[in-house]
Design a protein that fits this description.
The complex is a heterodimer of chains A (about 325) and B (about 325). Chain A is an all-alpha fold. Helix content of chain A is about 75%, strand content about 0%. Chain A contains 13 helices and no strands. In chain A, helix 5 runs antiparallel to helix 6, helix 7 packs across helix 10 and helix 10 runs antiparallel to helix 12. The longest helix of chain A has about 40 residues. The radius of gyration of chain A is 24 Å and the shape is globular. Chain B is mainly α. Chain B has 12 helices and no strands. Chain B is globular and about 75 Å long. The chains are: A mainly alpha (about 325), B mainly alpha (about 325). Chains A and B meet through helix 1, helix 7, helix 8, helix 10 and helix 11 of A and helix 4, helix 5, helix 9, helix 10 and helix 11 of B.
Chain lengths: ~325, ~325
């Protein structure tokens, strides 16, 4: 329990850091932040949009410290300001439209990649020197050297454009309306195949290598030898004895890799014109929509922090030592 | 843990020997050297990258070996010219990131207690905050260009190195020879620079290589988003324009394929070099290799049993 609370405290601190960073970034621009920001929009922005921008950042004449608390108050109420690219829609609403798609895409990709990579890592360590061990790690390492979004471009070109097997982009066909029906779900799955597959291809090698290397060390340890000597079935030795312990470093890595994978997944979204945060991010960058950019940064950060906390819970469940030492 | 225990070579010569002795490292070094040559001298062999030389989106031909872009520029020229900036940013960021990481990591690991607590908290926070969105918000506020990119990549990339180096410092800190140095009255600075850092050389080299791979990939990603200077010619902006000119939807694979291959080849070369170094400097892997060789020479099939050293920290 203490462990969980301590981790929670850490994530709250990290979230606060992200918020503070978000607050100070516009103010770190050379010169007076308000004028500098507005100068970029001269002539392109209606007065009310300027006013919205000013309010969103709390760029008032009040002293910095009170601006800071105004800002924190706004964020806590879910008020992230008004988007410039989608004026006058509030940033929170704009982000809301793409959040589920991003979570769906990145979540599916990360889970598939982790499970697949870990299983392959176990296999590769168990049959050391076999064909899995010889070929898979190096070929995945090679694939991992490509930028995610470049793999996505190639996949799109080959399977979408040349072969025409899978759709070229978007999350579902234009003539469908979102509904909880078999047709719609099947269509969403079809559209998700390529983006998910490219992220999985690019990331699976990392899990494979981590798992393989820990498994190799664990398989050489005394308790595994004892389990083997007892005549336990190999599958039991591998999965229940060795893999469970070897999984720990992978799980620790999982939390840290989340943010990284999410970044790659955002870029992949752009290639497939997937209507998630990645697409919104590009719109924000193109239109210099600072409130939207910062809103997306905050929301993604919070999502990653939350996911990390869940990973901590899983770790606690996997590793009894953590429970022992904290109770 | 010297680079080549059985040779008398030291310093750069030892690493050179390590590269020549290992096939993987050799391949990596050759690939890298090729790209460095292109980065340094390639510019003289191709024309002006921005010149409009032909009809847009022409497939590869004798005149334009890699075809033309959506604006009628020569793809090969753009790839060659882009190499310089992309590699320059990649290598310098890789180096700086490790310097910052080493500074923070060694400080945290060596001094321990409060200093360690505070610095560890700092890099752990930077580790959980997702890098790409953070990089984007920072880059968006700064004037676009290579310096902004480098700065952003350092800000988002140093934490991992700090963490690894701290762990290594902690492990070294407990060794007897450090205790001996402390007792004999050596200054902290001397202990860190003469006793601790030299013992981490292979780790630091691996970190620089890994960070360079990260820096090149992340830089290309940010530029692809349009956060670089889109009028400059780099690998990332090449891909940005390929995406913007809808190269994919017209089937113009030659506008994006070569650039991505270059990124991957550089990454692959660096990784190869790294694993080569690893096998040379890591006694465990060395033993394993020697053992397997020994068995194969005697017509045995190498089994799973390998001399495994379990590191406890």
């Amino acid at each position: 329990m203490r462990y969980i609370l301590r981790r929670l405290g850490f994530y709250v601190l990290a979230a606060w850091m992200a918020l503070t960073l978000n607050f100070f970034l516009p103010r770190l621009m050379p010169g007076d932040p308000a004028t500098a920001l507005f100068a970029r929009f001269r002539g392109r922005l209606a007065p009310e949009a300027m006013q919205a921008l000013r309010e969103a950042f709390g760029l008032t004449d009040a002293p910095l410290i009170s601006q800071y608390f105004t800002y924190l108050g706004h964020v806590l109420r879910g008020d992230l300001g008004i988007s410039i690219a989608y004026f006058p829609t509030p940033v929170a609403d704009v982000i809301h439209t793409g959040l589920l798609w991003t979570l769906f895409l990145a979540g599916t990709a990360v889970l598939i990649s982790f499970v697949l990579g870990t299983l392959l890592g176990i296999a590769s360590a168990w049959w050391r020197g076999g064909w899995i061990d010889t070929w898979l790690p190096s070929s995945f390492a090679f694939l991992g050297a490509f930028p995610y979004f470049w793999l996505a471009m190639v996949a799109l070109y080959v399977f979408g454009f040349s072969l025409g097997w899978l759709p070229l982009g978007h999350a579902y066909a234009d003539d469908l309306t979102p509904a909880f029906s078999a047709v719609f779900i099947a269509d969403v799955a079809r559209h998700a195949v390529l983006p998910v597959a490219t992220v999985v291809l690019a990331t699976v090698g990392g899990w494979l290598l981590t798992m393989r290397n820990t498994m190799v060390a664990v398989l050489g340890s005394d308790y595994v030898n004892l389990a083997r000597a007892k005549g336990l079935r190999p599958s039991r030795v591998v999965l229940r004895y060795a893999a469970r312990n070897a999984l720990l470093p992978s799980v620790t890595g999982f939390g840290m890799a989340l943010g990284f994978v999410l970044g790659g997944s955002l870029l992949t979204e752009i290639v497939f014109s997937y209507p998630g945060q990645g697409y919104l991010l590009v719109q924000a960058v193109r239109n210099q929509d600072y409130p939207l950019m910062q809103g997306i940064f905050l929301v993604i950060t919070l999502a990653v922090l939350g996911a990390n906390w869940v990973v901590d819970l899983v770790y606690l469940w996997l590793d009894p030592r953590t429970r022992e030492s904290s109770s | 843990m010297s680079a080549a225990a059985d040779s008398k070579a030291t310093g750069v010569a030892a690493w050179g020997l390590a590269i020549r002795r290992d096939r993987k490292a050799m391949i990596g070094a050759v690939v890298l050297a090729l790209f460095v040559l292109v980065a340094l001298f390639g510019r003289w062999f191709v024309g002006e990258p921005d010149a409009l030389v032909g009809i847009p989106l022409q497939p590869p031909s004798a005149a334009h070996w890699l075809g033309t872009t959506g604006q009628g520029q020569d793809v090969l020229t753009q790839v060659v010219v882009g190499t310089r900036v992309s590699l320059a940013i990649g290598f310098s960021v890789g180096l700086i990131v490790v310097l910052v990481g080493a500074l923070v990591g060694v400080t945290a690991g060596y001094f321990g207690r409060r200093v360690d607590g505070l610095l560890s908290l700092l890099f752990n926070i930077f580790l959980v905050i997702p890098g790409l969105p953070l990089a984007i918000v920072i880059a968006a506020y700064l004037p676009s260009g290579p310096f902004t990119l480098a700065l952003v990549l350092v800000v988002t990339g140093w934490a991992w190195n700090a963490r690894v180096i701290r762990a290594q410092t902690l492990a070294l800190r407990r060794r007897d020879f450090i205790a001996a140095a402390v007792v004999s009255g050596e200054s902290n600075f001397r202990i860190v620079t003469r006793e601790i850092l030299p013992n981490m050389t292979s780790l630091l080299v691996a970190q620089v290589i890994g960070s360079t791979v990260y820096a090149i990939g992340a830089q290309v990603g940010l530029e692809f988003l349009g956060l670089g200077d889109v009028s400059a010619v780099t690998w990332g902006t090449n891909l940005y324009w390929a995406q913007n000119d809808a190269a994919l939807l017209t089937g113009a694979w030659w506008t994006f394929a070569p650039t991505g291959l270059c990124v991957a080849l550089v990454g692959f070369g660096l990784t190869m070099l790294n694993s080569g170094f690893d096998e040379v400097t890591n006694p465990r892997l060395q033993l394993e290799r020697a053992w397997r060789k020994h068995l194969i020479l005697r017509h045995h099939v190498p089994a799973r049993s390998t001399p495994v050293v379990v590191d406890r920290d």
